């Protein structure tokens, strides 16, 4: 490790002397860049191991859970403890400590208006650490956010400002690094010219999906998705060898990602363009990203697939409700309109930051939908129910009714007893498929021949302010939280509530007030999201009803948590205190440690449940009465108390006895041990 530090220091000196020339050579790799927004290449130095080739585990624009990745994840060889350097002169404008997110994170604002961000840090340099600890002790809090004045914590380019770590929602030791502009937009750091990052590999196009976007559209004669794996031609282009037949409004979706020769990880692409018959229909340019709408990634991707298969597929069109401003489209917002019987060419160009490009080409044959039989099986989407011989699903404002072993010329849907005939659309996989446009009206019941299914749509929830729904024992306030029209379904049984499915995204919280049946009201009874595992949401009891907020649809249950958190000492001595804490249900909310009546700051790593002491005065030793209280999210308190002076004495006695105890006979040294071993 010492050798590594020495080499890092040498590399830093070389970097500071030669960073201008290094970045000029990099800038020449970007032909045509002058026409685009200009970023100051050479202004920022690489924040960790500068001058050494870097390997990334994440890049700008990666598709992450509920957000686009806003920076670079720089690998540190699965270890903590590397020096983190200020990328340029400036001042510390923000310090934050939190259990999740970026963990220990530092923001440095620079004279040119940009701010650099350094996340998942182990700790800060001496000056920043002292500034932070004084305020944590003053406020008696661990999680904190501070905004120093410009003259309080000035830094110089190349100054060590922190040590790399693994804090917050980090999957392993690394440095998260961002560059933001004065409007808090995240800018692709690779636009600033860091020679430490090399990438000569073109993006990969792994899967192509064509999806029908209304009840009157078809792909290869069917409604739903058609997924295809492209092949590489002799020229290196990706192709779909078979012509796709389609009609109506079609959405193109891609599973595409970038690769680098210095990393085994998949990275996000930063540019994508689609042309249909030689005309541009959709352009994506991920050069910058506003934070306030980054969560709209859930309509940038096919959210349904991400929830069912765990794969994030990019839409090559702008979905309803998407507020992200990184697209240029035609009047159809990138949707492909096929309204004739002609052959149409599709050309897709995918790029990474360095201009490495992959191309996909395929053809679509326009074909009017006709009643036909097909061999493929179309997967149900978003919401599906199966009862007897009938299965129903709702996607893209369309109710699909699939009935086995029938070719009945029509199905019947009802809404409040009013019937509507729905003609047979096609037959596939031994199922008759009937498609009903929900824009014509909602439906609560479907029938084909003598088989029927309850659809259960309670109400249309529109993407606008003031939307709510009530029924006995339930009220839901949506308050403009839906991206597109939601065909609301609900179910209540005992301590369980279901609202649609987790496969439909929300852009904001909804408020639910629910009166469960057969459940005793208790302040320690709360709501948990059980759609995928179990996560605590909480809630407030209002009489016999519980009110809670959620940003996910799906299944919810009530659980009562009467068990206090577990507290176990890991190490106690006069200079250092550490414990392992855990909670089996609602989760840890807070903790406070007092020694000899004085509050002691405890740091926390939630991933392993460890907390440990951070002194404000390193010379002061711990002694006297210790009391640690750990509180869970429903108010149960786990307590550990001990007199440290007596504890240290007992430990010393135990250590002395162990030192002078006679040596034990080794197993296997006598016949009795051998006999025991044979047993």
UniProtKB/TrEMBL annotation:
SUPFAM superfamilies: Duplicated hybrid motif (SSF51261). Residues 68-126 form the M23ase beta-sheet core domain. GO terms for molecular function: metalloendopeptidase activity. Residues 651-679 are annotated as: Disordered. Pfam families: Peptidase_M23 (PF01551). PANTHER family: M23 FAMILY METALLOPEPTIDASE, PEPTIDASE-RELATED. This is M23 family metallopeptidase.
């Amino acid at each position: 490790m010492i050798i590594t530090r020495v080499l890092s220091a040498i590399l830093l000196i070389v970097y500071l002397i030669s960073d201008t020339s290094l970045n000029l050579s990099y800038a020449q790799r970007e032909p045509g860049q002058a026409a685009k927004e200009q970023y100051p290449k050479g202004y920022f130095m690489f924040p960790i191991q500068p001058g050494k080739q870097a390997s990334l585990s994440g890049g700008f624009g990666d598709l992450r859970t509920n957000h686009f990745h806003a920076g670079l994840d720089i690998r540190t060889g699965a270890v903590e403890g590397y020096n983190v350097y200020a990328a340029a002169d400036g001042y510390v404008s923000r310090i934050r400590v939190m259990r999740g997110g970026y963990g220990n994170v530092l923001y440095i604002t620079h004279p040119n208006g940009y701010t650099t961000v350094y996340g998942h840090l182990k700790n800060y340099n001496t000056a920043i650490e002292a500034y932070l600890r004084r305020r944590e002790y003053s406020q008696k809090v661990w999680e904190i956010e501070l905004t120093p004045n410009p003259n309080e914590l000035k830094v110089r380019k190349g100054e060590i400002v922190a040590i790399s770590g693994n804090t917050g929602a980090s999957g392993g030791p690394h440095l998260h690094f961002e560059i933001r502009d004065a409007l808090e937009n995240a800018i692709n750091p690779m636009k600033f010219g860091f020679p430490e990052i090399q990438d000569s590999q073109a993006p990969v196009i792994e899967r192509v999906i064509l999806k029908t976007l209304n009840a009157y559209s078809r792909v290869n004669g069917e409604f739903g998705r058609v997924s295809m794996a492209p092949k590489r031609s002799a020229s290196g282009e990706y192709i779909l060898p078979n012509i796709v037949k389609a009609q109506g409004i079609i959405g193109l979706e891609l599973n595409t990602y970038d690769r680098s020769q210095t990393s085994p990880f998949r990275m996000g692409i930063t540019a994508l363009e689609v042309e249909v018959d030689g005309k541009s229909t959709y352009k994506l340019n991920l050069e910058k990203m506003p934070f306030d709408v980054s969560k709209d990634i859930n309509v940038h991707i096919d959210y349904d697939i991400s929830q069912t298969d765990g794969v994030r597929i990019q839409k090559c069109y702008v979905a309803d409700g998407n507020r992200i401003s990184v697209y240029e489209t035609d009047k159809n917002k990138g949707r492909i309109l096929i309204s004739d019987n002609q052959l149409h060419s599709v050309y897709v160009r995918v790029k990474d930051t360095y201009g490495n490009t992959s191309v996909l080409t395929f053809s679509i044959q326009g074909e009017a939908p006709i009643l036909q039989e097909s061999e493929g099986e179309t997967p149900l989407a978003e919401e599906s129910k199966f009862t007897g011989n009938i299965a129903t699903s709702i996607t893209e404002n369309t109710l699909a009714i699939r009935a086995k072993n029938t070719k009945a010329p029509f199905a019947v849907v009802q809404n409040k007893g009013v019937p509507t005939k729905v003609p047979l659309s096609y037959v596939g996989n031994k199922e008759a498929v009937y498609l009903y446009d929900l824009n014509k009206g909602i439906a609560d019941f479907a029938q084909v021949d003598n088989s029927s299914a309850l659809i259960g749509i309670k109400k249309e929830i529109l993407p606008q302010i003031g939307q709510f729904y009530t029924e006995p024992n339930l009220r839901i306030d949506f308050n403009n939280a839906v991206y597109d029209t939601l065909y609301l379904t609900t179910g209540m049984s005992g301590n369980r509530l279901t609202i649609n499915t987790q496969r439909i995204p929300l852009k904001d919280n909804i408020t639910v007030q629910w009166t469960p049946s057969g459940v005793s009201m208790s302040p320690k009874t709360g709501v948990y999201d059980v759609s995928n595992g179990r996560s605590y949401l909480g809630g407030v009891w209002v009489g016999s009803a519980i009110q809670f907020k959620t940003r996910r649809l799906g299944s919810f249950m009530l659980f009562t948590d009467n068990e206090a958190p577990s507290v176990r000492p890991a190490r106690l001595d006069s200079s250092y205190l550490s414990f392992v804490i855990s909670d089996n249900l609602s989760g840890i909310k807070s903790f406070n440690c007092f020694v000899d009546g004085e509050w002691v700051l405890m740091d926390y790593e939630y991933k392993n449940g460890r907390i440990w002491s951070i002194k404000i005065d390193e010379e002061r030793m711990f002694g006297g009465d210790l009391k640690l209280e750990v509180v869970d999210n429903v108010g149960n308190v786990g307590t550990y108390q001990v007199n440290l002076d007596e504890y240290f004495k007992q430990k010393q006695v135990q250590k002395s006895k162990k030192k002078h105890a006679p040596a034990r006979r080794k197993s296997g040294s006598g016949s009795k041990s051998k006999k025991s071993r044979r047993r």
